[in-house]
Design goal:
The chain contains 8 helices and 6 strands; from the N terminus they run βαββαααααββαβα. With about 210 residues, it is mainly alpha-helical. The chain has a two-stranded antiparallel sheet with strand order 1-6. Strands 2-3 form a two-stranded antiparallel sheet. Strand 4 (about 165) and strand 5 form a beta hairpin. It starts with 8 loop residues before the first strand and ends in a 5-residue tail after the last helix. About 30% of the residues are buried.
């Protein structure tokens, strides 16, 4: 097996959340959404956005892990067909059903608690608002401006050949993970060269 290099593609898993938050920041800057928008603005009328003590979840709450949502949707594993790839079959319908029954752990905006659920929901809401897929949003708002050639949720055949497989704690090879409705929390694949460009862009100071 060849050792990894700058062009070896990895699942970047939760680093995906930084890309999702960057997309949010860009479309806030463009005036498409506001951080203070309640998520109910972007949910079907048949889906009631959860709230606690009269406080509604906002886009900012999702991005800051302060929505009060649990780490994972309660119904995630009831949809799982392959335990080694648990989120692959979790659909938008499943996500909406979970929102109808979820009990918030705390009032939105009060305290931070890490949530894959929240960032998956954020990615889905940005899709709804813009009418674009999560992949398109990442490409247009992050990858194309920064020249990231190997950062994507949809690998080409050539890129798949450079994708490293996952491994469990015992060092045994396991399947890669796929995402549907929860793409915003962990679906991106990328290589070291692209990630260094992304880090450099985030560290630069740009005059406003």
């Amino acid at each position: 097996t060849n050792p990894p290099n700058a062009h070896t593609i990895f699942e970047i898993d939760s680093v995906t959340k930084v890309f999702t938050a960057t997309v949010l920041a860009k479309i806030v800057q463009d005036g498409t959404v506001k951080l203070t928008d309640p998520i109910s603005l972007y949910l079907p009328k048949t889906v009631v956005g959860p709230e606690k003590k009269g406080r509604k979840i906002t886009l900012e709450n999702l991005a800051a892990h302060t929505a009060g949502l649990p780490r994972l949707p309660d119904n995630l594993f009831t949809t799982t067909k392959d335990p080694q790839n648990p989120s692959a079959n979790y659909t938008t319908k499943d996500l909406h059903e979970s929102l109808a029954t979820v009990h918030l752990n705390r009032e939105p905006g009060k305290k931070s608690a890490y949530s894959n659920y929240g960032f998956g929901l954020l990615g889905k809401l940005l899709e709804v608002k813009t009418g674009k897929s999560y992949e398109t949003l990442v490409q247009e708002n992050v990858c194309e401006p920064l020249g990231l050639q190997n950062t994507t949720t949809q690998l080409s055949a050539q890129q798949k050949e450079r994708l490293t497989p996952g491994h469990n704690p015992k060092g045994e090879m396991v399947s890669n993970w796929d995402f549907d409705a929860l793409a915003g929390c962990g679906a991106i694949r990328s290589d070291t060269e692209d990630l260094l460009k992304f880090i450099k862009a985030n560290l630069e100071t740009v005059d406003s």
